[in-house]
Amino acid sequence: MEINGETITEVKRYDQLNISPAIMKALDKRGFVTATPVQSGAIPYFMEKRDVIAKAPTGTGKTFAFGIPMVEHCDSQGTDVTQLVLAPTRELALQIQDELRDLCEFMEGVRVVCLYGGAPIEKQIKELKNHPQIVVATPGRLMDHMKRRTVRLDHVETVVLDEADRMLDMGFIRDVTHILDLIKNRKNIGMFSATISREVMDISWVYQRDPVEITVQADIQNKPDIDQYRIEVDRGEKAELMAQLLLHGGYERAIAFCNTKNMTDRLAGLLRMRHISCEAIHGDIQQATREKTLQRFRDGKMQVLVATDVAARGLDIDDVDVVFNYDVPDENEYYVHRIGRTGRARKHGIAYTFCSSITEELRMDNIVKGTRNKVKKLKYEKGTLLELPEDGTV
Question: Does the pLDDT of residue 217 top 60, yes or no?
């Protein structure tokens, strides 16, 4: 890890970070002892209400890095929103809410509310009347509440942009800057992201003052333990190959990624025809249905979740056994975020990518080169997987 360009190798426990007994009790209950690098780097500065910009790989504990100081700064007797987290997707916003509520378990009086689109606004208005100190929101829905005057931000002291690069890529930059402009009394801003794009730096230059820059590289300590395979397979045999891998691998929980909404629905149908329990989630499915599907998956009542890249970020499920790239992703970054759904919490993971055309082979070559990941080559032929040498010949 680097802090303002200086390499820091010290590993810290949570009890070395001046965390209150109530939060320590919540961490102890969940068996958490050692802070991740981004947590040990960011928490002390966030406790001092310094501006922070942190780049860290997916699955390295960024939520606790900003969540612990935010909860610490809450007045359990307070009735104003003082802490605000902005997230790009509903799934990520809900996950952040859940993790913050876990941290608040032994802090009576600290309340967290999540505001996101695709859900009845009346229920959220009712929750806001309970005077939460922490609000987690997607930018669009927060703007709706601000227009209705159902939420006030004039007492907000800390703002966090989680997955900042993704949020700006999704076109929220105007909403984000408008929200920041309206928070006149803020004391610090945290920007947490897997990558730091030019747009993220632009926001930092305008809104942050002398930020502490934290960079956590993907190394042996925090890089997910994922065996990666690329498989040459005829397009018409991909569903059967996936079914065979699920059966012979004994995988209990899998996520399959497709590039289009139509393909997610089609793949879910093909797997159900093979008596594999699965459901698809994508942007055209109602939010309530998506949440029920995700909960069934988390509860282990469904073996396979088929998703578009809308779910590549925001899903924080620690025990996914295997990830399938049914379609080769369009961007290197999508590949990293997709396979990052497995191998989390220092567990071993598996990722398979199916290549069915020269175009997909070239795209995968580019991904391997760009990400510098070690990906073993296989070929599916006549119902058998053959290992290929590095040059790809049989």
Answer: yes
How far is it, in rounded angstroms, from Cα 256 to Cα 194? Answer: 21
Whether residue 229 is found in the same domain as residue 203:
no
Alpha helices (H) along the chain: 21-29, 37-47, 62-72, 90-103, 121-128, 139-148, 164-169, 173-182, 198-207, 238-249, 261-273, 287-298, 332-339, 358-371
List helix spans (H) across 233-318.
238-249, 261-273, 287-298
User: Which domain does 204 fall in, by range?
Assistant: 2-215
What pTM did the predictor assign? 0.68
**Which CATH number covers residue 206?**
3.40.50.300
Same domain for 95 and 189: yes
Structure confidence at residue 131 as a pLDDT band (50, 70, 90): very high
> What's the order of all strands across the beta sheet hosting 254-257?
278-281, 304-307, 254-257, 322-325, 348-355, 225-232, 375-381, 384-387
Selection from 148, 169, 195, 174 nearest residue 53 by Cα: 195
Higher pLDDT, 114 or 308: 114
Cβ atoms of residues 360 and 328 within 8 Å: yes
Residue among 354, 291, 281, 351 at smallest CA distance from 321:
351
Classify each residue of 281-296 as buried b or exposed e, where b means 16 or more C-beta atoms within 10 Å of its C-beta: bbeebebeebbebbee
- The answer to whether residues 190 and 59 belong to one domain is yes
12-35 pLDDT, tens digit per residue, is 899 999 999 999 999 999 888 999
